[in-house]
Amino acid sequence: MFWKEMEDYVRIFDTTLRDGEQCPGAAMSEDEKVEIAQHLAKMKVDIIEAGFPVSSPVQFKAVERIAREIEGPIICALARSLKPDLEAARDALKPAAKKRIHTFIASSPIHMKHKLDKSPSEVLAMAKDAVRMARGFVEDVEFSPEDATRSEWEFLRELVEVVIEEGATTINIPDTVGYTTPQEYGELFHFLKTKVKGADKVIFSAHCHNDLGLAVANSLATVLAGGRQIECTVNGIGERAGNTAMEEVVMALRTRKDKFGVETKIDGTLITRASYLVKTITGMVVQPNKAIVGTNAFAHESGIHQDGVIKNRQTYEIMTPESVGLKSNRMVLGRHSGRAGFKDRIIRLGFDPKPEDLDNAYQRFLEVADKKKEIFDEDIIALFQSETRKTGVDEKYELVSFEQTTGSEKTPVSSLTLLVDKAKKQSTSEGDGPVDSIFKAIDKITGVYPLLSRLVISPVTEGTDAMAEASVTIEYEGKRVVGKGDSTDIIEACAKAYINALNRL
Ligand code: KIV
Ligand code: ZN
């Protein structure tokens, strides 16, 4: 179908689960990928790139499960321009109602010579064969000339023309190394759209990396040049400096529709939750001043700004917090709130709770409410998500209680009681700090001694009684897992996160 005959909007191609996962430390389990994919489907993402099936059996299984379980978006799998890759993509996508194979081959002189050791004509032939084979498997085929922005334009024109002749339906032009600029990238799109035979039969897509901090600006520039798909990730996670941030392009196109003339179909009110989910699962924190989803993105600190916002929010707000799913009326529940009120709030926050998750989360809510007078939406999201993350995980280890002695002149010592397969075990350990001592005490009981590769502690809300959320990444016998824990006590949050990670191993 000619794209001009199709609805004119910008398709959101989310690659959090593929390019996003490629960044150090962001590997996700199969269940976590499905959880993210479910949320992306709810947000009305057009295409979910679920993974690179040939790269490992784990990747294959995750793509297959997403293809089977996720309804709504097109499910896409990545493949090099090689037969085994394309066959793996076809097989993994089999259960999907709507499927796409995304095949790529490098087109820049530096990649062709040093990485592929292939001549331009060999690359041309491989791309042609790959797209033909992919079209034999599925109707929807995307082709990417990798490192397109450092490729010769005339060669790109020829390559793109050949793959369109073979039936490619989307042409993605990756800025693989984050090298291009908005003007140059827009001109490249204009060149390809006007010079390539058959350009009017396909959708042109942007795929940007953020090495120079230009990924979002570059992606938006292509919309002005006729691009109608943007590849992006939640929170902009991805290789090196990351990929185009989905929340930023969505809100830029929406807020400045006067300039772009088109926008996306994304439900913006689910952006904050998407950000939170990806942050929680990957353990990759979001900088406070990050556009749209940073904790300060809608905070007005200076007196002049606050005065203006009180008089009229539009003085300093170009979009509302509600439009991205942040509630301005944040104070919600307290210790006297009943189960019905708690359930109602969970549902209004966009969750679809299972009865057992609701029961566990409500018990946790009561515990937190005993320690903290005001429970905010962010607290509820954190505690609900941490309870649901336990579902399906074998709770071999459970924290019963702990005590610590510490101080500026003292070596920290932790004494702790754990349930191991429901039997109580106790241990005591010194450490280099309070967290180190409690982790060592846990190790003494479990006998596991994993490598701690990352520990992030972040407050969920403001104030000294705020809930803290800890994310712990551990590695053991070739496996890498992320555990989460929350509490009004940061040491307890860390201990719970460590135990959650051990249970996930
Ligand atoms: O950055 C890149 O070039 C990619 C391709 C596989 C599309 O991720
Ligand atoms: Zn990429």
TrEMBL record:
Residue ranges annotated for the Pyruvate carboxyltransferase domain, each copy included: 10-272
Protein purpose: Catalyzes the condensation of the acetyl group of acetyl-CoA with 3-methyl-2-oxobutanoate (2-ketoisovalerate) to form 3-carboxy-3-hydroxy-4-methylpentanoate (2-isopropylmalate).
Origin organism lineage: Bacteria, Pseudomonadati, Spirochaetota, Spirochaetia, Leptospirales
Cofactor(s) listed in the protein's UniProt record: Mn(2+)
Protein name as catalogued: 2-isopropylmalate synthase
Ranges for region Regulatory domain: 398-505
Keyword RNA-binding part of the UniProt annotation: no
Family: Belongs to the alpha-IPM synthase/homocitrate synthase family. LeuA type 1 subfamily.
